[in-house]
């Protein structure tokens, strides 16, 4: 079923990409249209990372078209700047909608390796752009190999085939990853103090305090991150395995609510949030150290 939905996306979005040659201006409507197509694809169950692969291809296609229609050169690197500006002004406004963050473990940094937060969607959009950018050279090489014979719509079909292959590979490879879990089965469970206490007694649960300024902590807390608005910067302090449950709390529950959503976006599959925070914890007769 998921592959059927993916093929629906792979049929629909390339039409937008290759019909973009008829677009007469780069305007907010283009971005809105691309965003709507991407949102529809996500509704069909397609990975955000696959969606942004095609969004990046669409943006690059549009940028290259604009660079070609301006024949006169006014400034150095004019074509490059036009492509770059159109690419980024198309992709970046849509990133908040399709952002898929996850851990990237680099074993060769530090004594035990280092984990960074990685924006898979942004990287995928660049990959889509690179595919579109490199297709003309690949097409020329194929034409030369075939004694300068071409087949109908060679460049378009080649780009489409490459995007479909890469899109399928991404969808399959992310089938059990944090990104897919985040969009499909990740969850946040709001628990009262008595149930929260039972959860954190499980040794496999990672207990996280996100309150700022520091106002004490629950016994057994694994990590304190006071910059609760930017948890993505502190991946090295969080579990490398996104399947590890995280129990998060703050003083009243407001900061932990936002932090829980961020953790879900970062790919963590199970988040437990303390309802009422440390205030409710103390009111229930439990201690803060």
Labels describing this entry:
11 helices; Oxidized Rhodanese, domain 1; alpha/beta; 11% strand; 289 residues; 5-stranded parallel β-sheet; 2 domains
Give the uncertain stretches in residue-range form.
5-29, 176-185
Shape: elongated
Number of domains: 2
> Pairing-aware structural class of the strands and helices?
alpha/beta
Descriptive overview:
By secondary structure, the protein is α/β, with parallel strands linked by helices. It folds into 2 domains: 2-180, no CATH class; 186-283, Oxidized Rhodanese, domain 1. It is 53% helix and 11% strand. The protein has helices at 2-19, 28-43, 48-69, 78-91, 95-98, 120-145, 154-173, 178-184, 193-200, 254-265, 277-283, and strands at 101-106, 114-119, 187-191, 206-209, 223-224, 246-249, 270-274. The strands form 2 sheets. A 5-stranded parallel beta sheet has the order 3-7-6-4-5. The termini are far apart.
């Amino acid at each position: 079923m998921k592959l059927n939905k993916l093929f629906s996306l792979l049929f629909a979005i390339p039409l937008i990409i290759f019909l973009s040659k008829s677009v007469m201006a780069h305007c907010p409507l283009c971005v809105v249209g691309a965003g709507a197509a991407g949102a529809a694809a996500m509704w069909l169950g397609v990975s955000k990372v696959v969606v942004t692969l095609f969004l990046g291809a669409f943006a690059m296609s549009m940028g290259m078209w604009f660079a070609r229609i301006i024949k006169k050169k006014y400034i150095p690197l004019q074509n490059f700047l036009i492509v770059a500006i159109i690419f980024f002004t198309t992709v970046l406004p849509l990133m908040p909608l399709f952002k898929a963050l996850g851990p990237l473990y680099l074993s060769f940094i530090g004594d035990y390796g280092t984990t960074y937060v990685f924006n898979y969607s942004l990287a995928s959009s660049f990959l889509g752009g690179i595919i579109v950018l490199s297709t003309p050279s690949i097409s020329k090489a194929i034409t030369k190999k075939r004694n300068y014979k071409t087949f109908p719509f060679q460049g378009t079909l080649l780009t489409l085939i490459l995007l479909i292959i890469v899109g399928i590979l991404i969808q399959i490879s992310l089938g059990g990853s944090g990104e897919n879990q985040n969009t499909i089965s990740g969850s946040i469970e709001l628990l009262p103090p008595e149930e929260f206490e039972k959860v954190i007694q499980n040794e496999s649960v990672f207990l996280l305090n996100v309150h700022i300024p520091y106002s004490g902590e629950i016994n057994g807390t694994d990590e304190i991150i006071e910059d609760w608005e930017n948890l993505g910067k502190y991946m090295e302090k969080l579990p490398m395995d996104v399947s590890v449950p995280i129990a998060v709390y703050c003083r009243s529950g407001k900061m932990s609510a936002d932090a829980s959503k961020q953790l879900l976006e970062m790919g963590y599959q199970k988040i437990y949030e303390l309802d009422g925070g440390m205030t409710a914890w103390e009111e229930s007769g439990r201690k803060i150290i």
